[in-house]
């Protein structure tokens, strides 16, 4: 082989090997699939931002728990345990793709002639069926609430509470807590819900807000167990040496054990 | 890489073990005195010809073979002076960095004042996804592979319980009529006889509850009491730890633990380089060696630096809570104050610091 | 010093010479010892991965044999106690053979512990000054102490006796008798501490009851003398040393009582556990009837029970007990029954189910079995050598008076050639 052919061959091999490193970076979800995805990347020497599960695509480990967060901001304090600046949330507004347009297109604040001006329940035809199939039967609250009870009627990039105060999509707890007060109190205490970061009560934490775990549009869906969707579990532990199956411990539901 | 290292690595990969008898002569960047080097070399030279068993144990082909002789003879970590501890950790950093090809740190942060680590788990919220068990493995450098898989957390699936009309007359007739009801032996609720290897398509399943179990970090640990060499002990801020270099592998602690929390390295651990977490603590997640016991340490490498353990962070339902039991404002203290908590096998007087609750 | 040197030289030269049958026996043992060496190499190089041990059942054949052999070592007291406290003539003459058995049994225990440990290269961590010795908390630390002490007691006592016999000098009672009395009490302690090793752990409900030390002592005093009787019968047949019938009969009586009581304790355990049949009885249920489809221990349990009952019945009937053929059978049955009961019947089911309810099974690998047999072979080799030497000295074949290079046959001085006590 001519010497002049060696260098291009080496370069080609190097590019080929690199291309495997340029494969699609892993994407995994933080809490629920489709709502909280992150892309894996390196944020330091030997420090990825997340480690993903190869089986289920869930995030298993955060390199930096505060990656992509911002301070939670104002929250009505009544024996709350956070100090401003120490409670962080991951903003969701930038992930809701159409949100900037919501106020500018279709819902500009000016209602077209003939449209109802009240907040009574009505059927939505050909609108947002992908989110809610039948607006008169919202699977949340058993007929007691519908879209405009949570979504602002004129500023569609905001949520709204019972006093018509607009609430940011990044702080849904200000709305959810109005009805789910006991859960909200537990969430403020850190008993309900998820936090990552520093464990000290005076530490910095990223608080997971309500909609990061719960999808308010279908909490009463048939296969939900206590309002939380079903997930694919991770792999079972390895069987002990010498055992081939775990059939000995499986028994049909409800039959006698011994 | 010094020449010595290059030679060591190449000989090592060829299966030779000439390097196992001598400590590498390179000077790590952070080692100031050459007297240490001299002593190390003198010590290693003087003992390098002894101990057949030790020689046998270095003849395996893996990177553990490049253990420095000083590591063989180090004492119990708790009894070392601060300087000896630092030397021990530096030795390990060198060895691990060589083995795994990354900069590995072996931290030695001591217990924090005024902290007693506690844990609370909401068994109403656990959906049995097992992400805690896998996150723990991502963080803590356990061995993995066939017959070598170690997971510190075990999630049990328990039946919700079903009592049926049909079984009413299916009791055991014992001489004088039915004495055992037909619905006996139907498991229900929190029983320690769950399934360990469940693998459904989706969790939580309708008829099941889930309960994860790992080391309870007891205040009166039965494992600590039975250890013949006192290698496992309770640190001042709460977790029960193991000095892996002192453990003799007798497995008494594994027998004594009522929660089946401890695991054993039956062979050289298989830890792939790319999966290795380089941020370690001497008493925590540093890579172990064959023949020693390991278990959950409440992620001591993270919690001593103020961060939640890996299992707490990954739990998708927020069922796991961690904090300082001595701080009334911590999440765990609030849970104990507000909710009803219980501990497993409380009648054994182990006083775990791992509480279960429902809300 | 010269006498000591001659003692050593004469002892060794006597022991290495023997009949073809003797050499065949040694060669047979060496086969297993080779397997042991290979197995130990594998354990040292690769850890315990080639055994059937798992995190669920993490103590297996090795620890089971350790527990059993501590009992055998303790069983030597059944010779020493009657011999010296009750001045039983028949046993007095051969008491030193019991001490030799104790030494080899304790040596086997140490070998099994080394096989069992994950890091035998770190055994020095247990030494008091250079390591840490966790007294008074750790039962394993106590066990090590009492075992080493027992071995030393028997070694010093036994070889002192043999040396004095060799040189023809009388024993120094003030030195020797305290050793004997201490070793009698110490023998009880070694198996009691081994029982405490297991029964002080409430995490293992099958073991966590106060009956364990009693049961251990009883089975030790049944299995130990069984082995001793078999050895005595072989010694009678193969050497010129005649062991009195009274010695064998007393040992048989001891076995009868202890085996009977041990069976009674087994019955008591079965009734107590299975009456209420709580979760704590799952281990026993698994052993006796199998659970969740795992029935591998069931034949072992019923087999050992049958063997022990058969042995007891044979021993109970005086006409059968005095028939030494049947006695040998009974001893073999008792020994193997108790061996199975310690290993498969006690140790393994203690781990099944695990404290959090997992049912598994334990299947020892071929390597494990060969290492076990190899350890036994080493023990039997040491036992053979020690017994041969002791018998030679008892017979007077090895004596300082005749310490020439050529081996001379002496008239059988008979059993009555015990050293005079001043």
Q: Specify the number of helices of chain B.
A: 11
Q: Count the strands of chain B?
A: 14
What strand order characterises the main sheet of chain B? 12-2-14-13
Structural class of chain B: alpha+beta
Quaternary organization: heterotrimer
Q: Please work out how many helical segments of chain C DSSP would assign.
A: 15
pLDDT average of chain C, as an integer? Answer: 91
Strand content of chain C: under 5%
The global form of chain C is globular
Radius of gyration from the alpha-carbon trace of chain C, in angstroms: 22 Å
Structural class of chain C: mainly alpha
| Rounded Rg of chain B | 24 Å
**Number of E-state strands of chain C:** 0
End-to-end gap of chain C: 23 Å
Instruction: Determine the fraction of residues in helical runs of chain C and give it as a percent range.
Output: 55-70%
Mean pLDDT of chain B: 83
Low confidence ranges of chain B = 1-33, 42-51
DSSP strand (E) fraction of chain B?
A: 5-15%
| H/E topology pattern of chain C | HHHHHHHHHHHHHHH
Biggest interface, which chains? A-B, 56 and 66 residues
Largest sheet of chain C: none
Provide an overview of this structure:
The complex is a heterotrimer of chains A (258), B (359) and C (422). In chain A, the strands form five sheets. A four-stranded mixed beta sheet of chain A has the order 7-8-12-11, with no helix packed on it. In chain A, helix 4 (173-179) packs across helix 5. Helices cover 18% and strands 13% of the residues of chain A. Chain A has 258 residues and is an alpha+beta fold. Chain A folds into two domains: 25-64, no CATH class; 70-213, no CATH class. Chain B has a four-stranded mixed beta sheet with strand order 12-2-14-13. A two-stranded parallel sheet of chain B has the order 1-10. In chain B, strands 3-6 form a two-stranded antiparallel sheet. In chain B, 49% of the residues are buried. The model of chain B is unreliable at 1-33 and 42-51 (pLDDT under 50). Chain B has 359 residues and is an alpha+beta fold. Chain C is mostly helical and 422 residues long. Chain C has helices spanning 2-15, 20-46, 61-75, 77-85, 89-93, 95-116, 139-167, 173-199, 211-238, 245-276, 282-289, 298-316, 318-321, 324-347, 366-395. At the A-B interface, strand 6 and strand 11 of A face helix 6, helix 10, strand 12 and helix 11 of B.
